[in-house]
Amino acid sequence: MENRGVIKPMLGTHYPMISHGKGIYLYDDQGKQYIDGSSGAVTVNIGHGVDEIAMAMAEQASKVAFVYRSHFTSQAAERLANKLADLAPGDLNWTFFVNSGSEATETALKIAIQYFQEQGITSKTKILSRWTSYHGITLGALSMSGHLMRRARFTDLLEDFPAVSAPYCYRCPFHSTYPGCGLQCGEDLERAILEIGAENIAAFIFEPIIGAAGGAIAPPPGYYEKIQEICHKYNIVTIADEVMTGMGRTGKLFGVNHWNMTPDIMTLGKGLSAGYTPMAATIVSDRIISVIKQGTKSVMSGHTFSANPLSAAACCAVLDYVESHHLVHNSEARGEEMITGLKELMMKYAIIGDVRGKGLMVGVEFVSDLMTHRPFPAEAKVGEQFLSICFEKGLIVYPAFGGVRGYEGDSIMIAPPLVVTSAQVKEILNIMDESLSELMTRLIA
Ligand code: PLP
């Protein structure tokens, strides 16, 4: 019986001990193989055990692993920042490095507010966000998150930022259908701005494709163009939270690249380092930085490990790997195969209500009634059951529930490393097929 150790998400539950990983596979100390069908937390984009990354890290560590960002910069951090400036859309040219996605979105919040403060506008302190969203677990980031389950225990401590409906066509908050709806979900942003007052709002934050809170929900065409237009009209900074969607996950390098929109600030995490080291980033446009530069104050964010050379070198090597192995293209091509395969399973299993997503960020929503999209009751824990059946069979899929209705719910994500092959996509689909069959048997019993 354990009486000390790492605090696990579910204390008292047995967690297998992982000994090593290679590509899309993980192996525990008992020799069991798992397919990492979720890339951990949608993180390990280049797969496990890539020697090039280990070598780049060893080389950097032997030169210098850490310098304090208030004293020095480093070649590795500058190279990474320059690379990101080359790749990011528009004039997103300035990067602030942090260690987690939550820190990246909190930094974005602070920079957006500071941008207005430097212009003498002190009332713009609110950040608008959407319901059915996730921007991180620290209190500022959680305040911006419309994830009901994760907010629940801390509501009294949180700012009331989420105010806008999600562009969630399968469960349209306006009970309309695209394109006849006239993009009411986009117009909902303007409604919220008028209600709260543009003079109080610094920024609007969004995940280009909704991840943890709903399972790969992409908006209808025209939505982001509308959002951009509304934000410009009311002098509101746009923050694209690309912590999950960035670095090729959705079949384009950044999620916003699917639309004709350029955010003022972009956050990255997860796939930036592909999990080889904790690293995240807040990328800021020339327009915002030029105002902040003229002011007298530094950006009041930063952490001891911000921009450390070791993590930066790891991220440079990850980016090189993504490019040299054409992983953005592979994400798009294998994602299409995954979605086609899941749509076939949808014909076979009447509990699959929706299959959606882009690239290798693929969502499946379970429902008890295909016609009405009625969800299963919370007690049935259908999503959780599916996850544990898959886990038993050696496949890891990602829980994307709790964000919509606040209870354990019904959407999951399949998001394997972007190195996945066509044969491995079939392997994943076969295990899902077997797991769905077992789930159906349990539900009927
Ligand atoms: N933003 C998005 C879109 C995320 O999906 C997540 C994590 O899932 C975060 C922010 C928070 O990142 P982290 O867990 O690294 O703090």
TrEMBL record:
CDD domains: OAT_like. Pfam families: Aminotran_3 (PF00202). Keywords: Aminotransferase, Pyridoxal phosphate, Transferase. The keyword Transferase applies. InterPro entries: Aminotrans_3, PyrdxlP-dep_Trfase, PyrdxlP-dep_Trfase_major, PyrdxlP-dep_Trfase_small. One of its GO terms (molecular function) is pyridoxal phosphate binding. PANTHER family: AMINOTRANSFERASE, AMINOTRANSFERASE CLASS-III. Belongs to the class-III pyridoxal-phosphate-dependent aminotransferase family. This is Aminotransferase. It comes from Fictibacillus macauensis ZFHKF-1.
